[in-house]
Design brief:
The chain is of the alpha/beta class. It is about 45% helix and about 15% strand. Strand 3, helix 6 (about 150-160) and strand 4 form a beta-alpha-beta unit.
Length: about 500
Amino acid sequence: MAFKGTKSPTQVVEVARAAFQTGTTKDVKFREKQLRSLLRMYSENKTRMIEVLAEDLRKSRQEVEILEIELLTYDLKHTINSLHEWVKPERPPRSFANWLDKTYLYSEPYGVVLIIGAWNYPLLLTLMPLAGAIAAGNCVVIKPSEVTPASAKFMQEIIPKYLDNECYQVYTGGAPETTELLQEKFDYIFFTGSTHIGKIVHAAANKFLTPTTLELGGKSPVYIDNTANIDVVAHRVLWGKWINSGQTCIAPDYILCNKEVEAKFLKAADNVLKEFYKTNPKDSPDFCRIVNDKHFQRLSGLLKGCQIALGGETDAKERFIGLSVVVDVQANDPIMEDEIFGPILPIVNVTNAYDALNFINKRDKPLALYIFSNNKRDVDLFLENTSSGGVCVNDTAMHFGVGSLPFGGVGASGMGAYHGKYTFDTFSHKKGCLYKNLGIIGETLASSRYPPYSQAKCNALKMLLKYRSGIDLTYLPHFTMFLLGAIISYGLTHFGNTLFQRNNA
């Protein structure tokens, strides 16, 4: 998809930079107006959004409405309703040394930010961070994924009709255009995509020491033990794997269970697949397609040589791969090397929770970890001894929709987080401010830092620093006595100096 605009990357950034320097986006009323326009954009273009996602990925209407439009709308409404509260300066606690002062934490915009969207959820994963960046007061350059051209064209055409054309600009194009864009200096970069491209984006950001959020992926494991209701497990795991034909960053990537659980799961999964798709999944209007031929060939290649227990149907002409469960998978098999990002679900056999824990911890930290168990001890074992972007117990993918939880990766699965207030915070620099008191008492407390130095002054400063984490009422009497002593000392000194000056007048 070639760039169809008239501005070069440098011109795009210059326009955004000039717009930010006017201070327009710092006006909270302006931000709110833009956010409400974005909400209106969702409402007035719902049908078109369904059409472009069907064109790009053959997504079903329900998937688009619930997993893209409704999530966007819910998050945006929450942002609009909370905006005036979020922009208020916070009041962090004070320490002994600053008892008479005031402390503030201001949320200020970074400036001009770049948002690089993903192709698997091309609207959701581009427009949700955009809303947070607007709320935080930034100017934004939006780069949709060229892999889903209908969605990219939609954003290029529709966003300028609803948002300020100088503060918020859409720049389309492929890898060459993205490379040119990354040569420009941004104040923040938000990227969603593969780990490979994420490394390239991060390297480009390093040139200008630009902070980044990288929403990547990884092989998200599912542990199932024999205490779980296997029928419910099969429904929830297969749904999490099936949505968007497995092209979801938090899709279950592989299952860890023993042979007994595997047999039960395969039997339940067979029934669930028939329930979902009747006899022919390819004819189901609810099953997405692989995004392009390149990814179809990659996924088809992974199936070769695998022991397919369920599914396995493919159609190159339609880019269709049926939801496939494969067994007898070893840790070093090709299918276990990288994130699958498609409707293939391997099962790796382990003997118990400790075996599964060891398997997970030998690999890169995943974006999501799924645990199916009614054994609280084993659940806690995973929670306390693994590291992942997020965890969902007894379900898959549902934690993404909880606006009060941060969503993001760790290690190879990404850095930074967003959703709800976390998005606002991601696009805000937290500026600390100490507002000092100029009164006599405040100056008396401060006087110990001034020369000439003495052991008494040093001891006074040590006491203040010792309790700098906050005011502990346990030491309030000691602090009060110190304060009174300092005041009396100051008063006597002042009185003595005054008397001396009068006697020598």
